[in-house]
Design brief:
Structural class: alpha/beta
CATH superfamily of the largest domain: P-loop containing nucleotide triphosphate hydrolases
Largest sheet: 6 strands, mixed
Order of helices and strands: HHEHEEHEHEEEHHEHEHHEEHEE
Shape: globular
Strand order of the largest sheet: 3-2-4-7-1-8
Helix content: 40-55%
Radius of gyration: 22 Å
Low-confidence stretches: 318-327
Oligomer: single chain
Number of strands: 13
Amino acid sequence: MSTPRFHPEQAARDLAALTKKHMVGQDAAIEAFAAEVCRHIALSPLQRGPGVFLLAGPNIEDHHISMVAGLTTSLKGRGVLYSMAAIDGQDLAQILPSLSHGMDARPLAHILKHRPDTVFIFRDIDQARLSLLEKMKRAWSQGFVTGEGGEAIPLADSFFVLTTGVAQEQIGQIAREEQDPDRLHVTCLKALIDAGFPALIIKSIDGVFGLQHLDAAEVAHAHYRGLAEQVAAHGLLLEEGGIDARILLQAIDPTIEPHVPNLLLPRDNLDARLAQVKTAGAGTVRLVLDYEAIRILPVEKGTPQWVIDAFAAVDPVPSADGEAKDE
């Protein structure tokens, strides 16, 4: 049986779409990251080393980790997080994760041996010990780490996504002004080195992706646009001004009362309910905040109350555990 051909352009679009379910307002960084990742995957095994990417700039609501969400989802959740500031070990192969998804907390070499396409997320790479950085550089250059038995464990199918809080404001401004990914890479690297980022590993990094600084109005606009596009994707029309202002206030300030955790992202739950409402016959809808969920209501002129009630039954308010509950 032949192996399905990998199409990097389509794969990049799919990866970007997955990532945008977890964050808004950073389309340029998301699309550049997705394109670079898929170009790397498309290389032949003989050409390919580990993918090493750096995420920098403002880390609002943990956007650095959200940037990796699409990649780990597409690889069936194989993402392992390491908080470098808390790691005392000096042997790269033996460091333990701070948080893992879908696997036990095993040494890095063990994970690599059994799941070679894992995404390793190194949070705050600038805070790692110098001796550990030196071993990272050597491993990335050689293309393998050494296991406990002395065997070479290849890195060709793995990704290392590094994050840094160095020069956040400066990187955020550079990302707003520079549209070309190659120039952005160079400009961000210079700013990072000038601000004290460890130059030792700079040449190992395949791409730097800077997140933009967004003001409150831009955050609200990005969420409005994203929700409108999500509604349209289901063949529905969003009423003009049809998003409850309280929903957008949650986007600007998640601490505002009533506090609704995970109201906006990810959007898979809302997708499922939009599909149900479309199947039930809706055309134009509005989105309102009801209890702790986004409710979808039809707004066609002359819609009888019994029809609106029927849609409320189709789109029940989810409970805190994600299950629908009756009113």
